[in-house]
Amino acid sequence: MRLEKYRIDQHNSELDDKHQKRISFFLEENTSAKNIIQKLVDFQIAIPSWALGTGGTRFGRFSGGGEPRNLEDKLMDIGLLHQLNGSSGAVSLHIPWDIPSDAEKIKNLAGSLNLKFDAMNSNTFQDQAAQEFSYKFGSLQHVDENVRRQAIEHNIEVIKHGEALGSKSLTVWLADGSCFPGQLNFREAFQRTLDSLREIYAALPTDWKIFVEYKAYEPNFYSTTVGDWGQSLLYATKLGEKAFTLVDLGHHLPNANIEQIVSLLLMEGKLGGFHFNDSKYGDDDLTAGSLKPYQLFLIFNELVEGMDARGMNHATDLGWMIDASHNVKDPLEDLLQSVEAIMMAYAQSLLVDRTALKAAQQVHDVALCQEILQHAHRTDVRPLVAEARLRAGAALDPIALFRTLDVRKKLIDERGLKTVATGL
Ligand code: PSV
Ligand code: MN
Ligand code: MN
Questions:
Q1: Number of domains in the chain
Q2: Is residue 209 assigned to a domain?
Q3: Which of 1, 37, 383, 407 has fewest C-beta within 10 Å?
Q4: Mutation test of ligand 1: which of 323, 326, 422 has the most ligand atoms closer than 8 Å to its C-beta?
Q5: Is residue 414 one of the residues assigned to a domain?
């Protein structure tokens, strides 16, 4: 389904009085904020195709109904999100879950919804029905050359699908690793993985990037062959200039200082992209900003500082994506909440007084350094983010409009109650 433009306009005009008061007050209080609205408008966060259905746990899955039945439905859902918030203008596909039967048609559909194709994701962590060799003991790291070959060829096929759609990057997340000490020779596993990645790298079109995503543990619980940012950076450095590290917020050991990791990867020119989510324990894949909004802000603070230092374009020079999906909320409402949290953290980090922070750092005024950061984080930037939505032609209050228009009910009417999208 699509939202008729007049519905959004009507919603906005109902809220306009209140919004105008809030935004004028905000701009009076924060005089530098005027210049950052366009940055917020430009900033787009890709939606992963696997987040549109109710996620499962390994114990069960509870579909909420009206979920996408195929790739077209997934694009339609993201199109809806983008109409509502103006910041979800990209999709990240997972192959083989999202193999387009007709790439041209899918490309046109995405174009008509104003969506771009962000990174393509390969899948060598599950066995598919028609597949010859099993990934039970790894894929790109596997001791058997046949398995490695199959996994390499799969990645090359993913690149081809991406090329047909206009994507420009491939994200490789590997489940490879070991569950028990002694199971694996770490050095040889690394070397085999590197050799496999080199073959995939060689198949990249000239204007493509490859992102090497790391994860501390799960599904392997003793070692992971791309287990942390150090290992990812090693691969990315050895591969070459088109290879970068991808940071997924849920893929660290507890209490890792992710903002410092981000800062150093940026310094090395090796940060490629981001997967946003939030967690209390591990790779919980909860709504971005739902548990640790200050951490999210501190990460953005480093991103903005580091990107500005390197003269990078915030909107286009890194891949921004949500990677979250879970069991209990309407997936579309959940994604609207994630995008809002990310936009708020981004807006707050744009408000940091960097000159004052630098000066305070130089004289070791630690309390003032903290004040400066917390002042930005404690600023209620909701009017600013709403203003960016308004300027993008989206809704002042996306979730309220989603509910007023009974979007989920309409999707259930259209698609049925028992729908399950291909995916996790
Ligand atoms: C598994 O942890 C995972 O969530 C990774 O974060 C990948 O990005 C995603 O699945 C899709 O492959
Ligand atoms: Mn991820
Ligand atoms: Mn994950």
A1: 1
A2: yes
A3: 1
A4: 323
A5: no
Which ligand is in closest contact with the Cα of 274? 2
Residues 6 or more apart in contact with residue 194 via CB below 8 angstroms: 235, 238, 239
Averaged over 197-223, what is the pLDDT? 98
Tokens encoding 3: 């939202």
Q: Using a 6 Å cutoff on CB, does residue 211 contact ligand 1?
A: no
ipTM value, please give it.
0.98
CATH of the domain at 231: 3.20.20.150
pLDDT band at residue 423 using 50, 70 and 90 as cut-offs? low
With respect to residue 297, please indicate whether it lies within any of the assigned structural domains: yes
C-alpha dist (Å) from residue 102 to 91, 158, 173, 382, 421: 17, 15, 26, 41, 18
- Measured in angstroms, how far is the CA atom of residue 171 from the centroid of ligand 1? 10
The Cα diameter of the chain in Å comes to 66
> Is the minimum distance from the CB of 275 to ligand 1 under 6 angstroms?
yes
- Residue span of the structural domain in which 209 resides: 43-345
59 CA distance to ligand 3 centroid (A)?
A: 17
Question: How large a percentage of the chain has pLDDT more than 70?
Answer: 98
Per-residue pLDDT, averaged over 225-254, amounts to 98
| 247 alpha carbon – ligand 2 mean position (Å) | 8
pLDDT of the residue at 299: 98
Q: Tokens representing 290? A: 């739902």
Residue 162 belongs to some domain of the structure: yes
Note the pTM of the prediction, 2 decimals.
0.97
Q: Which ligand number lies closest to the CA of residue 48?
A: 1
Beta strands in 206-329 (DSSP E): 209-213, 223-224, 243-248, 271-276, 319-322
Q: How far does residue 424's CA lie from ligand 1's centre (Å)?
A: 9
